[in-house]
């Protein structure tokens, strides 16, 4: 999948009800996943982080911007952070499977729609910039909303890339662009003197001869009675977090103050934190492959907690869906069945006893179901990708074959879920009379969960078989097995 990150910044950080409405607008869009929402009252700004494929992110950004345009009036907005719009900036960031060119394409798509549908002028920045000077976001924000309101009408150099040469009366303008991963990193000083923060910011930022790929400003954070050096690290590989922090510390000592605390706004790549850990722990020859969680992921693949799975399942996204949920029900049934049988197996139970075989079957089925939770999502994602390729290249033989293969896989995975559920239920029923009476309700629950796994799996099979049939493929064998499984388990 060609996933991107989208990180819209909104000029509202005090009315959290408004921020929630904006974030909820994104959550209503299928395929867009809201990862993080952060608000700051002094900056009067909120940063919302989304991930998804390009079309979903464009729809989510449009939905959020509609709410922001209605809810935020820049004529009555104050805050420490510079801004030109109610939705101030919308960057697209390529993740694994996508490129900066993909990010530029979707930035342009969003920009055209924003100007046409919302009447907001759009400035393209970063890798999407059409003018060299607009590659840097501070140049786009020059004069902020109040200054741009005048110059956009009179200065040809301030004409937007999309839209009319006038700001929206309440929502202003917006910068939409494409960039690499950015780390928003703030350092709080042990002083409320904002002039010191501004001097430090001037020293460390790139445009004034400081650190490469660092933007910095000094702010007064009244809520904390502290001055803040606010930094954007636009390429943490050139200037990592620890180098930026040490530069701020060094400059702070000139003025007799210290760094009291730092913070990261939004999300951060784990590699950036590992860089800082290696620096401060002086791990000069550290092999990151030795990190415990990485070893586990390498051995068994990526994992997530059940609550995390439920969050993804509840999100308005195509995957995970019913097939993954059916496999999850099967995993619960298998685990519960394993517990029931475990209470009946003792140290003297022979290895060839059906109880031991049932316990082993539960354990194996549980692993199979857990694997199926991810496989079902992957199978449907592959169908969507193959369908898009076929739409873009109609009649292409290789793409038609890929589409059929993906459809068949999307039927095979839930069929395997149903098959495993039926087989395990039959095994548990066969030894049910030998389990403890006190665990009868647990066994009943396990069998009900396995029945749900079968029914949910078969429902997905039928949908995918219809698609296979529409593609001219023979489906009689799959349908026959599905019918047999549907009549099993009583």
The CATH homologous superfamily name of the largest domain equals Formiminotetrahydrofolate cyclodeaminase monomer, up-and-down helical bundle
String of helices and strands = EEHEEHEHEHHEEHEEHEHHHHHHHH
Overall spatial form: globular
Helix content: 40-55%
CATH fold topology of the largest domain: Four Helix Bundle (Hemerythrin (Met), subunit A)
Name the CATH class of the largest domain: Mainly Alpha
Strand content: 5-15%
Query: What oligomeric state do the depicted chains represent?
Result: single chain
CATH architecture title of the largest domain: Up-down Bundle
Low-confidence stretches: none
Number of helices: 15
- The beta-strand count equals 11
Would you kindly provide a brief summary of this structure?
The protein is α+β, with helices and mostly antiparallel strands. The protein has 15 helices and eleven strands.
What can you tell me about this protein's structure?
This protein has 15 helices and eleven strands. By secondary structure, the protein is α+β, with helices and mostly antiparallel strands. It has three domains: 176 residues, Formiminotransferase, N-terminal subdomain (Formiminotransferase-cyclodeaminase, Chain B, domain 1, 2-Layer Sandwich); 93 residues, Alpha-Beta Plaits; 181 residues, Four Helix Bundle (Hemerythrin (Met), subunit A) (Up-down Bundle). Strands 1, 2, 3, 4, 5, 6 and 7 form a seven-stranded mixed sheet that branches. It has a four-stranded antiparallel sheet with strand order 9-10-8-11. Helix 11 packs antiparallel against helix 12.
